[in-house]
Design goal:
The chain is of the alpha+beta class and 178 residues long. It has a single domain, classed as Gamma-glutamyl cyclotransferase-like (Hypothetical upf0131 protein ytfp, Roll). It contains 5 helices and 9 strands; from the N terminus they run H-E-H-E-E-E-E-H-E-E-E-H-H-E. It has helices at 2-11, 28-35, 89-98, 146-158, 162-170; strands spanning 17-21, 42-46, 52-60, 65-72, 79-85, 102-107, 112-114, 123-129, 172-173. The strands form 2 sheets. The chain has a 6-stranded mixed beta sheet with strand order 6-8-1-5-2-7. A 3-stranded mixed beta sheet has the order 4-3-9. Helix 4 (146-158) crosses helix 5 (162-170). It is globular, with a radius of gyration of 18 Å.
């Protein structure tokens, strides 16, 4: 009897918690700086049917900086990014501490495409900007961080492949591409 229970326990699929990344945390150096350790990422796509689009639209007025966000849209697009597996609560807390202009939102698994798939009981979350931080300012050159931030993001996407970067640039609104 005890042997059956052990076999049953081994066959249970482990549940994972993932965070969908789509901005500066795509860059391994940014991830390491935030999390204080190396965390591998899995390239994936947040599908158009989720109803969001990515844009450079999240403003920190205190710092005169701008960041990427994903916002609800009738013109939604596939959003390429990465998943990181959250194995410790401390890792999640470090991301939450960093992402002060955003709240966590669960993403249904069937709205994310990952090459090797996910388990049905895995949970995926992403960070959505609070509406009060979304700017209508399209003149992004006025922000102090725009050049450094956009280069950092692009390096993260290019580390996956040139095609991944190309897809990012084609599917991101209001992005500084100089």
């Amino acid at each position: 009897m005890s042997n059956k229970n052990n076999t049953h326990a081994k066959n249970k699929t482990k549940s994972n918690i993932y965070i969908f990344l789509y901005g500066a945390l795509m860059n391994s150096c940014s991830r390491k700086k935030t999390l204080q350790h190396i965390v591998e990422n899995k390239p994936c796509i947040l599908l158009k049917k989720f109803g969001y689009t990515r844009c450079l639209c999240v403003e920190s007025k205190q710092k005169n900086e701008i960041y990427l966000g994903i916002i609800k849209s009738t013109k939604s697009k596939d959003i390429n990014g990465s998943l990181i597996n959250i194995k410790k609560l401390s890792t999640l807390n470090k991301i939450k501490k960093r992402e002060i202009h955003y709240y966590m939102k669960q993403v249904p698994n069937d709205f994310v495409f990952v090459q090797n798939g996910l388990n049905n009981n895995d949970k995926i979350y992403t960070f959505i900007p609070y509406s009060k931080y979304i700017t209508k300012n399209k003149n992004i050159e006025t922000y102090d961080n725009v050049k450094e931030y956009t280069e950092n993001v692009m390096m993260g996407y290019q580390s996956i492949s040139d095609e991944y970067l190309h897809n990012f640039l084609n599917n991101t609104d209001n992005f500084f591409k100089k």
